[in-house]
Amino acid sequence: MSTATGLRVILGAGGQAWDGWTPTQREHLDLRDPASFERWFGERRADAFLCEHVWEHLTEQDGQEAARLCFSYLKPGGFLRCAVPDAHFPDPDYQQMVQIGGPGPADHPAADHQVVYGYREFVAMFEAAGFEVDLLEYCDEAGRFHYHGWDVATGPIYRSFLLDHRNRDGNLGFVSLIVDAYKPEVAGSEN
After folding, report:
1. Which residue ranges make up each domain of the chain?
2. Which residues does 15 contact at the CB level (< 8 Å), separation at least 6?
3. Which CATH code is given to the segment(s) 2-182?
4. How many CB atoms lie within 10 A of CB 88?
5. 174, 94 contact by CB (below 8 A)
């Protein structure tokens, strides 16, 4: 599990497998079950977590608790890169697909989506858990897309501006709200 870049864990990997990352599924690490983290990690702590399109399946309260859980299982200076559907992406078909209880794509049913986040709410949730947050990709309230040149090599998100096959020839076909949530090097009390 450990590599030259430390312990890097994909939460809710589904079919994702990235070099240098350890994929886990809900039966290994359940964001709603602190005991699963305790069993899996023991005394170890992760250098990084990667979580793509999982948080929207949690209630807002579960999402807040999951943020605190991830914070406690990261090393100081570690980060969580997290992507969710973007509440402000101005495509009606996209919004219908990702809506709470929506149909979703065939390979990722959205019927169990609990929340669709805007960037302000998503950032605030991680900050409340003790993280320092950088917005990597998001749409603002006017639907304008913002991209802050992040390095895919530090944690790939497929449903992103750079990697998603639907984003070609200057067209945005599918975007995510993506943040890096960093655990401060010198953390106060762990949440």
Report:
1. 2-182
2. none
3. 3.40.50
4. 20
5. yes
